[in-house]
Specification:
homodimer, two-stranded antiparallel ribbon, 11 strands
Chain lengths: 229, 229
C-alpha cells in the first residue's frame, strides 16, 4: 500500500478485540479505494498477530508509529478486553495523538471507552454497545442508545453490526449516498434475522428473565434507559 | 482450546478470503461455548497469517491436518479470490474429506463455489452471493436467491451479512431459539441501514444504471432472476 497522498482511515487494534467491530467497517469502506483518496489501514503497536475474542488471530498492516497522522482514527470494541485496553498506554497515547490531528475520530462496539480513556469524550454524546453504557458515563461521556452518533468530529457506533450502519453513513459523507448503497448491495446488507428484532427479543419473558439474572447486563440496561434521546 | 470431546465447527480459510464471511458466523456462534460441546475453530493448510480482501491479515488456530473430522465444515467467500481457491488442491481435498464425515457442511458468501469444486453440490439447491450465481450453476448446483438454504445436510448462505442470518438459524438448530436471540442481542443485530434495503436500492435509477454498466454484475443478476423459488 502506498500511503503517500492518501487519506488514511485507521482502525487501532489491541489484544482481545472483537473482529466484527473491525471487519464490518472495513467491508463497507472497501469500495472507497476506487476513485477516492481514502484508504483503510489496520494499525497496532507492533506488526504481530493479535488474539481476538473469537477463534481467530488478526494481524495489522502498519504500526502506530507508521500512521501518526491519519485522516480518521477508529477504535473497535473488545468486550471485557476493552477494559484492559483503557490502561494500554501505547494504544491510548496513539489514539489521543492521532485524534488531535485527524478530521474524524470514532469507535465501534465498546471502543468509545478507549476514546474516553484518552480524554476525548468529556461531556460528549456517544454511542456504545449497550452493556457498557454505564461504564462510559462514569468516564465522563453521555451514552446514547442510538445505532451511531455523528457530531461531525466524532462518529461513534454501538455494538456488532451497528458499525456497519455507521460506516455506510461515513461513506455517504465522504463520497455519496449511491456509493454507500453500492457497498450495501455488495455485502448483501439486507438482514433478515430469522427470530425477529432485538426489541421484540427484550420484550420476551423468557429472555428477559435470563437477562435479569445477569447483574452486569441488567444494570447496564437500566443505565441505558436513563438516557433520553 | 482442548478439542477432545468437542464437536468442532470448522471454518476453512484460504488466501484472499472475505473476513466478514468468517467473523460474522464466529460472532454468532461464540456463545455456543457455554454449556454445549460445540466449539468454533478456524483452520487452514498452514498456521500462517493469510491476506484477506481487506487491509487485515487473519491467522487460523489449527491446520487442516489437525481437524480432520469436524462436526461441521464451512467455507467462507472471497470474491474473485474464490475462483483461485476452487483450484487449491489442499483446500478442496480438505473440504471434500471433512464434509464426508461431518454432520453439516456449508458456506457463506461465494464459498459454495468451493463446495461445488469438491463435487458436493451436484443438483443441490444452494445460496450464494448474488454476483456468483451463474458460476455456481455452471458447476452443477442450483443457485437460490435466498439468504440461506438449510437442507439438513448442507447449510449455504448468501453474501456478507447473510452468514449472520444463517448462523442464527444454526444456533437455533443446535441449541435453541432463545440462544439465537441472545447471540443476536449481544451483537446488536438490529440493522438500520441508513439508506434503505437493497431491494429499494436496485430499483433506483442511478444505481441501476451504474450496475448495468458493469457486465459481470448485470449478467449475474440476470442469472439470479432465472431462479424460481
Amino acid at each position: 500500500m502506498a500511503d503517500r497522498g492518501k487519506r488514511l482511515i485507521a482502525f487501532a487494534l489491541y489484544p482481545g478485540v472483537t473482529p466484527l467491530d473491525v471487519v464490518g467497517p472495513l467491508t463497507v469502506l472497501r469500495d472507497l479505494r476506487i476513485g477516492t483518496p481514502y484508504r483503510t489501514v489496520v494499525v497496532a503497536e507492533r506488526l504481530e498477530a493479535l488474539p481476538t475474542d473469537t477463534n481467530l488471530h488478526v494481524t495489522p498492516a502498519r504500526t502506530f508509529a507508521e500512521v501518526q497522522a491519519p485522516f480518521a482514527v477508529f477504535v473497535p470494541g473488545g468486550g471485557t478486553n476493552t477494559i484492559e485496553a483503557m490502561a494500554d498506554r501505547a494504544l491510548v497515547t496513539y489514539v489521543r495523538r492521532a485524534a488531535a490531528s485527524a478530521t474524524i475520530a470514532g469507535s465501534t462496539g465498546n471502543g468509545a471507552l478507549v476514546l474516553a480513556a484518552a480524554g476525548l469524550l468529556d461531556g460528549r454524546r456517544a454511542a456504545i454497545h449497550w452493556a457498557y453504557a454505564n461504564l462510559l458515563r462514569e468516564r465522563g461521556a453521555v451514552p446514547v442508545a442510538d445505532r451511531w452518533v455523528d457530531d461531525g468530529r466524532f462518529l461513534t457506533a454501538a455494538g456488532g453490526t451497528a458499525g456497519i450502519d455507521a460506516m455506510l453513513q461515513l461513506t455517504a459523507r465522504l463520497r455519496s449516498v449511491s456509493a454507500a448503497r453500492l457497498a450495501q448491495l455488495w455485502m448483501e446488507y439486507d438482514p433478515q434475522p430469522p427470530f425477529g428484532r432485538p426489541e421484540a427479543i427484550e420484550a420476551s419473558g423468557e429472555l428477559g428473565a435470563h437477562l435479569r439474572a445477569r447483574p452486569a447486563l441488567s444494570a447496564s440496561r437500566e443505565g441505558l434507559d436513563d438516557v433520553t434521546h
